[in-house]
Amino acid sequence: MWIEEEKKLPSDMSKMVDVAFKINCKTLPYDHAFSLSNAILKHLPWLEDNKLTGIQTLHGPESGNGWTRAENEEIFLSKRTRLVLRIPKSDFEKACVLQGETLSVLGNEIKIGKASKKPFLTVRDLICRFVLTDDDLDESEFLKYVAEEFEHNQIHLRKAICGKTKSFTINGNQKFMRSLMIADLSKENSIKLQDLGVGIGRIFGCGIFLPHKSIDAVANFKED
Q1: Domain span at residue 162?
Q2: Dihedral sign of CA atoms 61, 64, 70, 76 in order
């Protein structure tokens, strides 16, 4: 008799999962995070019980005709756009209650369709679109803050790049944030960062790591 222990992939060890909903909505203002969060919390108030639970903002093309989109413009949503919640794996059925609802976000209706699970990809490079920061924190100070948080979670930061400071309106207050890309992660740390995120504000789409658009994001790591 020869029984080998089943090998678990790093992605199987994650505590969180993404739930992607089909939506029907043509446009939204760029600065919609706070309103979107409030609309969803009316149906799923338990999302606030876990600080790692997140609501990703909706995104269209990042630029048009070679020009970078201004922050005060509307974004155009395609049929492929999905509303994505990052939740504990055990809460998937609870999240499906959102199916069939219509959300009102800044005068726009978002009709919510079918939900599906999106397990984390095991990739070397991750990007976070929005990390909350202070407006007077320069690039080196921001990266130092990120590195210290990673060290607290036993992750040594090797390669990181941050973007320019942008602003959102949260509960009537202007909040500042930067994008952040982390490169050359191990398989385990890639999944760990997607579970944990960085900083605060998940419920407004901040601190959520996603696969960077690279060959790894498409093919994944080759398994040992």
Answers
A1: 126-219
A2: negative
Pair 53, 111 in one domain:
yes
Q: What is the DSSP string of 73-108?
A: SEEEPPTT-EEEEEEEGGGHHHHGGGTT-EEEETTE
Burial class (CB in 10 A: 0-12, 13-18, 19+), 45: exposed
Q: Can you say how many angstroms the Cα of residue 208 is from the centroid of all Cα atoms in its chain?
A: 3
Q: How far apart are CA 77 and CA 24, in angstroms?
A: 9
Within a domain: 69: yes
Whether 166 and 192 share a structural domain:
yes
pLDDT digits (tens, 9 = 90+) for 114-170: 999 999 999 999 999 999 999 889 999 999 999 999 999 999 999 999 999 999 999
CA gyration radius, the chain: 18
Looking at the structure of the chain, the number of domains it has is: 2
Residue 1 belongs to a domain: no
Question: Are residues 104 and 132 both part of a single domain?
Answer: no
In this structure, what are the phi and psi dihedrals at residue 75, rounded to the nearest 5 degrees?
-110, 145
50-82 residue pLDDT tens: 999 999 999 875 544 333 445 557 899 999 999
